[in-house]
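Many introductory courses stop at the sequence. We go one step further.
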Amino acid sequence: MTAIDVHAHVIVPELLRQAAPREDWRPALRRANGRQVIELSGLRFNSMIQELVEIERILAAEERVGFGHVVLSPWVPLLFYDVDPEEGLRRCRLQNQGLARMRADRPDRVSVLGAVPLQDPSLAAGELEELMTTGCFAGVEITASVGGTYLGDPRFAPFWAAAETAGALVFVHPTTRGFGDAVFGEYYLHNLVGNPMETTLAAAHMVLAGVMERHPGLKVLLAHGGGAIVALRGRLRHGHETVATASGALSEPADASIRRFLFDTVTHDPALLRDLVEAVGADRVLLGSDYPFDMGDGHPLQTVRRAALDVDDEAALLSGNAERLLAIGVR
């Protein structure tokens, strides 16, 4: 199989304002000077440098950089954690209908990750179980925190149990607005540093809370190469071994739990990607692009090839791991 992109985003047409003009929570799409502009909740977003809605244009763009198959997940602001859970569920189901349609129309080229109302973990667990029984979904996308609560919190226990039982891939993505310090408003730091910092916090919280140890069958994919979690493995290990407040919920070494995660390749640095592979193993790293955003990797296959991995490891990153974990090409 040709290369598989596990980190790419989409807005399904079913959610657009045009589909229900009176529902002002929906994103509005317009095009200006050949670029998309999305308006949502009074804000204007123009960080999308390629197509985000029309599936044929998305697939054409992916094919141009070498992808034969793409795993589409929602645009993160459309996960709807800031509304009543039942309303969130309604919106998630509208989105999931669109994602299922894209998958059904092009099963050889498209896989999808759905949305669940994680502000109510038990409700999200039930919805995840329903999605996985349809055969359309490879898993779900969630954010690093929900209402400021990070993913190792006990409130999320029903969701993690359901995800492990269902064999779902859980893609953990930054909220993209996790920190309010003024400095994050300068020099694009909310994205350059804030986004990977969110992922790092979520992963560290899950590790020290014992989530990955308690659920060894979980398939949790961290965006953006896992942020800095691998670079901090020694610090987490030392803290877990020596500081009482860091050691109460985890039995195994912290770096053993870190190696239970999956990681995408969006590091923007072949040498750093090679270090990631060496730290966690080639079987834990999957090719991603962060399409269609300005901080995505515009040449993801080249990033992998420039990492100078051995032939088998390179093949695993380009497609083998995704084929194995998501049963792409088998369904």
